[in-house]
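Sequence in, structure out. Go.
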Amino acid sequence: MEDCGLPLRTENGEVCSLELIQIVGHQLWTVKAAYIEQTGGPEVIQFGELQDPVPGAGEVLVRVGAASVNPIDTYTRGGMVAAELPLPFVVGSDLAGVVAAVGEGVSQWKTGDRVWGANQGGQGRQGTAAELACVGADWLHATPEGVSDEDAAAVALVGITAHIGLVLRAKVVAGETIFVNGGAGGVGSMVVQISKALGARVIATAGNDERVEKAKSFGADKVVNYKNDNVAARVLEWAPGGVDVLWETRRETDFDWAISLLAKRGRMVVMAGRDARPVLPVGALYVKDCSVHGFAMFNYPAAEQRQCGDDINHWLAEGKLKANIDCVLPLSEAAAAHRLQEENTIGLAGTLSGKIVLKP
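Output:
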């Protein structure tokens, strides 16, 4: 295991290095983390010290500079998603930081490399809301020069999600019209920006005037305030023949309404509402030769997500993609961050527009 000289604390607060740990046993090393010992509400999240994460074969130890919060993190923590969690379980899916050490067989990364990644905190993998995290080498992407850890972490999961839906599933091409139902939020803002990077025209919705301007700042060509305007009328006014792709960010989908906005051979992407059971108007769907695409990014292996990361890095470097960060909180406030995320995802509080980033 390669040592970058990263200072680490023993259980009594003394500083030691990876070299010392290799000599006397790594049980001495502890790191601060936000973790749970049982599933439940945000209050089950503890902040304290855990035993060292040591990279195994094919893994990379990352000194976390920033981690972001996603709805899936609250579902996993709350037990809403069936998962076998190693306990204590560190929460979080996304991270960005610096390679602190590499495990056996890792050749594509070296100590000091800046990296970002998602797909943690599930599938038997520990999460990222910690000072240090072990990540499979194949799940990491290089952080472009000039991009902060906060921005890279905030883009990670939502950017990959938007890329899978638009590029791998809907296969958006230049000149098409994309409608994003919720263009100022975490995933929605990525859909707007990636659609524009692909050369598409974008129509979006937002819930107030401030968010309308925010969606426009991300590149949306037309934005309608869904609280005081007729969305369907505005969309069909701006796209009389219907839209080529409709991206639904809401948990509950009205398929009759959505299909009425699609052009012939239009594609609809749904990304939320795992418990939703809406009516699907099959007749309207096949008469217009439309298709519905549902997916979960965690079903896509690292090899398939490599294209996502490469494209995202390209657009980040070119300034075509920017993070949508609502607030930055210290790692010790992870429980408050989860509460805020849950209030907006499930409770629809409307007090969050963008990502929550945690800083160790």
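Check: The chain has ten helices and 18 strands. The longest helix spans residues 149-169.
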